[in-house]
Amino acid sequence: MSKTPTNPELVIFDCDGVLVDTERLTNRTLAAMITDLGYPMSGPESQQRFMGRTIENVQAMVEELTGKHLPPDWPDQVRARDLEVFRRGVDPINGIFDVLDFLNGKDIPYCVASSGKHAKMDITLGSSGLMPSVKGRTFSAQDCENGKPHPDVFLLAAKTMGFAPETCVVIEDSLPGVQAGLAAGMTVFAYVEDPACDRAAMKAAGATLFEDMNQLPDLLFSA
Q1: How far is CA 123 from CA 15, 16, 136, in A?
Q2: Global pTM?
Q3: Distance CA 157, CA 163 (A)
Q4: In this structure, are residues 19 and 13 in contact, taking their beta carbons and an 8 Å threshold?
């Protein structure tokens, strides 16, 4: 586990479940699609199994679970269903605007690094009102060779923003995301307000856990 920087130079936020409240919506849709394949699954179970992973990785896991070969466009089918839901409106995570205001006040830059595609972030960040705060500073696993738990998207974000990995802090809510941030050599804080979060695994991996977004400013500058 990397040591928390006294003054982090860059804060990298995951998107789903950290900036926007989409995890429950996404996994409700995904669970319904998997249930339609003959493998009954609830939204919370889907969230526990697949949280933080790319849809392509999820497809491989679903094929193993169901014993069925899914069509090549199955990830696109999932994304299309998700976007239908997101267009109806997505809420920001409670307290996130205050966190961004705090970082702005301290002149600490921040960006977004997500497993989701840019088209998805455009809708979720747009409908939640967060896009003006992060426009031009969103990074997606679609731009990388490997998704989380590999560190690629976090390293891309740090390099593009002009910061060394060891000076960056990652805010995540999933085990693959935590693993990716730590593999990048960054300090990781895990937002675990959602009961579906695997708290024990994220703590064991080396993340610092917190339950309320309003706690984050003090955690970032507690040293």
Answers
A1: 12, 12, 14
A2: 0.83
A3: 9
A4: yes
- Concatenated DSSP letters for the chain? -PPPPSS-SEEEE-SBTTTB--HHHHHHHHHHHHHHTT----HHHHHHHHTT--HHHHHHHHHHHH--PPPTTHHHHHHHHHHHHHTT--PBPTTHHHHHHHHHHTT--EEEEESS-HHHHHHHHHHHT-HHHHTT-EEEGGGSSS-TTSSHHHHHHHHHHT--GGGEEEEESSHHHHHHHHHTT-EEEEE--STTS-HHHHHHHTPEEES-GGGHHHHHT--
More confident residue, 163 or 194: 163
The span from the CA of 3 to the CA of 18, in Å, is 22
User: Residue-wise over 122-139: b if at least 16 C-beta within 10 A, else e?
Assistant: bbbbbbbebbebbeebbb
Summarised one tens digit per residue, pLDDT across range 25-34 is 888 999 999 9
Helix axes 74-86, 23-36, angle to 10 degrees: 140
Neighbour tally for 162: CB within 10 Å: 9
| 107: Cβ contacts below 8 Å, ≥ 6 apart | none
CB 193 within 8 A of CB 212: yes
Name which residue leads in pLDDT, 32 or 52: 32
Strand partners, 208: 189
Per-residue pLDDT at 26:
87
Q: Of 20, 78, 8, which Cα lies nearest the Cα of 219? A: 8
